[in-house]
């Protein structure tokens, strides 16, 4: 994950909760991709270090466990850069130009110059990130499948040229629920509508108080429609089914107002986030432990990556 800013509830539901489950099922590697962040932050790198540390705290607070997983920072692993260089020598430019996000982002992003090799070639670095650990599976959403297929093609090409070194990783498709932001649009840092894991409870409460609801429900006595209400999307995630069904029915008959609906939701969210708050407080009171986790994760990752790079150099006769 790129360190583009603080983690919000959308990241928690869409990624971190799934990662927590995976670390109990697989030998898992999770890293903060600060080199990848340079594809969009190369002209202003002032926040990358701070964002990286904040992201790590969010991950640990959300339940990623360094005793179960290998957690590290990409830029502390020069092996990734070496493999990226070697793989770039055998990757046709045409493969990179056909990656869907390449032209899409060039058309969408108007405030940054993306006409550089780093942006064109970042899928090769992404491939190196995956292949260096001989990953069997990569948890991705369906929109990321083209990137993973490119990784498989690069692995296949390397193995054809130099002998079998890499595994062709499979997709571990994951459902990625989309949580709305306070304005009803997709929750995003760039929209300034996000509810962050690092927000204090009173800040979260205030954000939910101002969150948009069913636009057709103007007065308290108007019947509502939970199907179009952004607040009810959160109820589907955080409110137990029996209570949620009652809210659904009461909303449709105007037996409950939006204020009470939000009050119930806030209570349930606070219950779910309590372990996150406790862990965050513990980490912030012992900042040295964060550095120890980073150092330990780098050593564990390097043990695997260095063995792979030995095989790569032997296969390429360099």
Description:
The chain is mainly alpha-helical and 318 residues long. The protein is 58% helix and 6% strand. The strands form two sheets. The protein has a two-stranded parallel sheet with strand order 1-2. Strand 3, helix 8 and strand 4 (170-173) form a beta-alpha-beta unit. Helix 3 (48-62) crosses helix 12 (258-285) and helix 9 packs antiparallel against helix 12. The longest helix has 30 residues, at 287-316. The chain starts with 8 loop residues before the first helix and ends with a helix. The mean pLDDT is 94.
Core attributes:
318 residues; mainly alpha; two-stranded parallel sheet; two-stranded parallel ribbon; 4 strands
Topology:
Elements: H1 9-22, E1 28-32, H2 34-41, H3 48-62, E2 69-73, H4 78-88, H5 93-97, H6 100-108, H7 117-131, E3 137-140, H8 145-162, E4 170-173, H9 201-209, H10 230-238, H11 241-252, H12 258-285, H13 287-316
Parallel strand pairs: 1-2, 3-4
Helix pairs in contact: 2-7, 3-12, 4-7, 4-13, 7-8, 9-12, 10-12
């Amino acid at each position: 994950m790129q360190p583009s800013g603080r983690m919000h509830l959308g990241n928690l539901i869409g990624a971190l909760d799934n990662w927590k489950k995976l670390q109990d099922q697989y030998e898992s590697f999770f890293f903060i991709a600060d080199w990848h962040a340079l594809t969009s932050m190369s002209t202003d790198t002032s926040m990358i270090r701070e964002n990286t540390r904040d992201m790590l705290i969010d991950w640990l607070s959300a339940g990623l466990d360094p005793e179960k997983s290998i957690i590290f920072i990409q830029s502390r692993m020069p092996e990734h850069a070496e493999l990226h260089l070697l793989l770039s020598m055998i990757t046709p430019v045409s493969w990179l130009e056909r990656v869907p996000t390449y032209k899409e982002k060039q058309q969408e992003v108007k405030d940054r110059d993306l006409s550089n090799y780093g942006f064109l070639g970042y899928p090769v670095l992404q491939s190196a990130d995956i292949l260096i650990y001989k990953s069997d599976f990569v948890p991705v959403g369906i929109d990321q499948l083209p990137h993973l297929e490119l990784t498989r093609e690069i692995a296949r090409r390397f193995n054809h040229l130099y002998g079998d070194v890499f595994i062709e990783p499979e997709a571990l498709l994951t459902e990625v629920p989309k949580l709305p932001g306070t304005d009803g649009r997709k929750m995003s840092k760039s929209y300034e509508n996000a509810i962050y894991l690092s927000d204090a409870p009173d800040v979260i409460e205030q954000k939910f108080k101002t969150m948009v609801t069913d636009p057709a429900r103007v007065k308290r006595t108007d019947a509502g429609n939970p199907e179009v209400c952004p607040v009810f999307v959160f109820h589907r995630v955080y409110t137990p089914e029996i209570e949620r069904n009652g809210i659904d029915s009461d909303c449709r008959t105007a037996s409950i107002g939006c204020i009470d609906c939000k009050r119930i939701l806030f209570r349930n969210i606070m219950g779910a986030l309590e372990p996150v708050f406790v862990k965050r407080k513990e980490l912030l009171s012992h900042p040295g432990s964060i550095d120890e986790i980073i150092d330990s994760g780098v050593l564990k990752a390097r043990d695997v990556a260095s063995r792979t790079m030995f095989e790569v150099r032997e296969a390429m006769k360099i």
